[in-house]
Every structure is written in C-alpha cells, then in structure tokens.
Amino acid sequence: MAKTLKQDAYSFLGSQLEEIGSELVVGYDKDYGVIGIAKNKAQLKQVLKTKGIAGVIIADRESCAVGYDFIKGEQYFGMPERHGHISDYIDKEKVAVYGNGDTDKLVIENNDFMLKLMEFLDKNNISYNDSTYAPIRGHKYMYEITVYNGRCSTTISKNQTYMKTSTDVLIVHDSTRDVEFEFYAEFLCKVLNIDFNVAKQLIIDCYNAKGLYQ
C-alpha cells in the first residue's frame, strides 16, 4: 500500500471530521471487522497506524460513503456489500447465536443486558432507537438498540455489535469475532461519547444484570 494513499486519507478524512463534527471514521481489517474509530484528526492518525488495517471509511455523503482501500490502493465511493445484504447477515447471526441452544434463556440474558444499557442511555440523555424481534420464530422477543453518529449507525445487542454506513455492514463483534474488553470499552466511549472508565463500568454492569426482564 502506497504511503501516499494513507496520507491522502488522513488529509481528506481529517478535514471531514473537522468540518462535520458528528461523523466517525471507521478503520477495518481485511475481513471487514472494525479495528479502530476516529472522531478527530489525532485519533485518525492512530487508526491509520493500527496493525492489520485494510481500509477506512466515513459516511459523510447523502448517497454513499467515502473510503480508502489500502489493499487495492484506491479511494472508493460506497463500499460493496462484503457481507451480503444486511438482512442476510442478520438472519445468519440469529441462527448462529440463538438457534443452537436454549433460545429463550439466551434472549432473557440479552434483554437483561439491553435493559441495563437502555437505563444508562436514558439517564444520560443519549439518543437511541430500540427495536424488538424474535430471533427464532415462536420464541421470546429480544431487544437491540441503534445509535447514530451522523450518517453512521451502530446496532448493539449482547452478542452482536455492528456498524452500518450507507452501503455495508462492518462487524465489531458477533458469533465469529471476539474483541478484547478494553477495545470494546474504547469503542463505546467514542460511539456513545462517554468517558472511557464509564464505558468499562457500563459493560461490566450490563453483563452482570439479572432479573430486569420479566
């Protein structure tokens, strides 16, 4: 990957972060898993230095996202669907997480986690959209939430977190991808605009939540 492409990415995306303010630049690896988030030029510089980075993207346009593919060595407008259609990806995850065990027990654990998270968001006036659906037909409904940073959305449940630009989904964690505690805390810190230590305690509280869902 030519060094100049990263320099171009830093210059263009950094200026977008300064001008727009509410957007995020997402760094991803060759499997389109999220490995870094930037809200300003200093953070972008660090993301671009992250080991294994394959590209960066920002959802800063009305019709498509702008990104840089460091493997192909090119700028692009609108990332092709790397995981297939978003609904296909979600359906696969439903089966992977909830289709091979005690579905209702797993849903209850998810909902305890999510109710604690929503309680925190409400208390701190952090905007989000919540939704419910049955991951497996005939079973209990599970909660998930979506938060927005400009035109980039992040959808969160206990067992899955993914980001969506205008064109595709990038995985933070799911049935095939684990992340370290510190990484996820840093991720929530930036997406929810909260202190890093608060994010760490929030994760602990959510995972320890029991009996909230009736």
Automatic annotation (TrEMBL):
Keywords: Plasmid. This is Uncharacterized protein. It comes from Bacillus thuringiensis.
